[in-house]
Amino acid sequence: MDLSFAFLNKPGGFALSEGWLVVNGLNPYWQVFLSGLLNTLKVAFPAAFLALLLGLLSGVGQGAANPAWRGVARLHVDVFRNTPLLVQLLGWYFAITALLPLAHTPWALHGGVYLSKSGLALPALHWSGSWFEPVLVWPVVGRFSVEGGWVLSPEFLAVWLALSVYTSAYVAGVVQAGLASVPQGQRQAALALGLRPVQAFTQVVLPQAFRAMVPPLANQWLNLLKNASLGVVVGYPELVSVSNTALNQSGRVVECVLLVMVLYGALSLFSTGLLNAWNRRLLRRGQHA
Prior knowledge:
Layout: H1 29-61, H2 67-81, H3 85-99, E1 107-109, E2 113-116, E3 119-122, E4 124-128, E5 133-137, E6 140-141, E7 146-147, E8 150-152, H4 154-180, H5 184-192, H6 197-227, H7 239-250, H8 253-288
Helix pairs in contact: 1-2, 1-4, 1-7, 2-4, 3-4, 4-6, 5-6, 6-8, 7-8
């Protein structure tokens, strides 16, 4: 079989519904793949941030003295860790497209934010004028839909929420184990020195626990990055989705699959290198502390 990647310079013949790069039928295949790669990162980074925040709250909550917080945290972990990610993704997508109002009658949230079946409309910065002055553009409700601003599509929201909530259940376990690795004497010594309980946790316990959390958190980031490929089932134009369309258009099945494997491998290796370097730096800092 003759492998050739010369097709990457030919027009793709199809457009993408969203992305940082505007792709139409005249753009070559390599730009299509680049846009899919950027869309993968576009949803992965916000999902990682939200997963870390929710996981931290849930992990701390499982050891909290407040029974309500402890119960909600344990329920969060039990429900989302034991439900397949694909089921959660479809659930979020159908909830957004079925339960939210139509685009011309959106829910008006705080600060000029609108939510509807068409997605989440946010104020956006636009650069205009000879000096590239930033102009804040506010979304407004038009006759048929919300116009202006920055719109996050229902597909993006579904993938973002599913990845965030699912991964946060595993991050909660990492946080709980990291906190348990810190000897109780550290907290007691901080309290004996006059620190308040919140100060003892944030300034003494959490920094020590975080050093133990970094390696397993790196694994969760890699899992989240690869799980973003499930966006194909709801039509989010991430890397696997654009690859499926490209291989049908070009007929270069093996080349497209190999390209996706190489890109995901490169992302994973690059992320692993950065996280390992960060982990070594934290360990050296802990040894000199």
